[in-house]
Amino acid sequence: MRTMDTSADLSERRAGVARLFDLLAPHYDQGGVPWFGPIATRLLELVAPAPGERAADIGCGRGAVTLSLAEAVGHDGHVTAVDLSPAMVELLTTRAVELGVGNIETRVGDSSEVGLESGTYDLVTASLVLFFTPDPLDALSHWVSLLRPGGRIGLTAFGDQDPAWTAAEEVLLAFAPPQVLDARTSGRQGSFATTDSLARLLEASGATDVDCHDEPLEVTLPDADAWRAWTMSLGLRQLWASVPEGALSEVLERVGTALEADRGADGLLHLTQQVRYATGTRPG
Ligand SMILES: C[S@@+](CC[C@H](N)C(=O)[O-])C[C@H]1O[C@@H](n2cnc3c(N)ncnc32)[C@H](O)[C@@H]1O
């Protein structure tokens, strides 16, 4: 059942997401492990941006999708990058200037409140964003409405992980505050539970030619300390912050025990995450 949020609830939830990502921004994707980059690369392969296209990247973060998208659409194309978090947008803007990329315009705010024009985009992308929205069908319907007829949308979310990785995260989740919005909580419920349910959500939002499937992404790390260092550069940082100081060494030990099941013959931990890719088209 869909719950009705008041506008004050909605503002508070959006402000909470903005605060979270403002805190994460300096560390975000700085863990030295290929993660958001490979996911963005695959998403862009699937939606195939073409030179001259006009695109919107929703929940752009530090630009894992945005920067490659801007390169793909080229000087004749344009990318509008939107994020609730001012810190994320500032880091993306700085990076774009450093790289001399001139076809990105950034906007801070919720995707429905930053003046994106309906029916005008060739392409909308949103990588690892939808599970942060209070009403995913409402958000997705808006994103599809931004497309011109025949325009494409591409999303990512997370599917299953290998059992050892799940067990390690469960150690942390035991400390999570109730109703934390994250890939590990809201991102595994309801419409996010399966490829079929996410495909149905995208269809219900008005898209056709919908495809949704999982592809594995492997991460290789030496040990649990490296896992902690890396996950501090992800949304999981908020879960680590919930672990009381006095419990940290025991938590690390339990995480280490859980992850041992992923140790391969090469002596390294091999963790596998299924990444969920969903694409669709606005009917003409
Ligand atoms: C997990 S990060 C993904 C960032 C980027 N797409 C990437 O792949 O690295 C999710 C981002 O979505 C943003 N976000 C969440 N809900 C949003 C909304 N309704 N409108 C705009 N941005 C949103 C967050 O602030 C955060 O920066």
Notes on the protein architecture:
It is a single chain. The protein has 284 residues and is an alpha/beta fold. It has one domain (7-161, 179-218, 273-281): Rossmann fold. The protein is 38% helix and 23% strand. The protein contains ten helices and seven strands. The chain has helices at residues 7-24, 36-47, 66-73, 86-99, 136-145, 163-173, 195-204, 224-231, 237-240, 248-259; strands spanning 54-58, 78-83, 104-108, 121-127, 147-161, 208-221, 269-281. Strands 3-2-1-4-5-7-6 form a seven-stranded mixed β-sheet. The chain starts with 6 loop residues before the first helix and ends with a strand. The mean pLDDT is 93. Bound molecules: S-adenosylmethionine. S-adenosylmethionine binds next to helix 1, helix 2 and strand 2.
List the helices and strands and how they pair.
Blueprint: H1 7-24, H2 36-47, E1 54-58, H3 66-73, E2 78-83, H4 86-99, E3 104-108, E4 121-127, H5 136-145, E5 147-161, H6 163-173, H7 195-204, E6 208-221, H8 224-231, H9 237-240, H10 248-259, E7 269-281
Parallel strand pairs: 1-2, 1-4, 2-3, 4-5
Antiparallel strand pairs: 5-7, 6-7
The structure holds S-adenosylmethionine.
Query: Can you tell me the CATH class?
Result: Alpha Beta
Q: How many distinct domains? A: 1
Unreliable spans: none
Globally, the shape reads globular
The helix/strand series, from N terminus to C terminus, equals: HHEHEHEEHEHHEHHHE
Small-molecule binders here are: S-adenosylmethionine
Strand order of the largest sheet: 3-2-1-4-5-7-6
Average pLDDT taken over every residue: 93
- How many H/I helices? 10
User: What gap, in angstroms, lies between the N and C termini?
Assistant: 31 Å
Share of residues in strands: 15-25%
Largest sheet: 7 strands, mixed
Radius of gyration: 19 Å
Care to count the β-strands?
7
The CATH H-level superfamily is Vaccinia Virus protein VP39
CATH topology term:
Rossmann fold
Fraction of residues in H or I helices: 25-40%
CATH architecture: 3-Layer(aba) Sandwich
**Structural class, from secondary structure content?**
alpha/beta
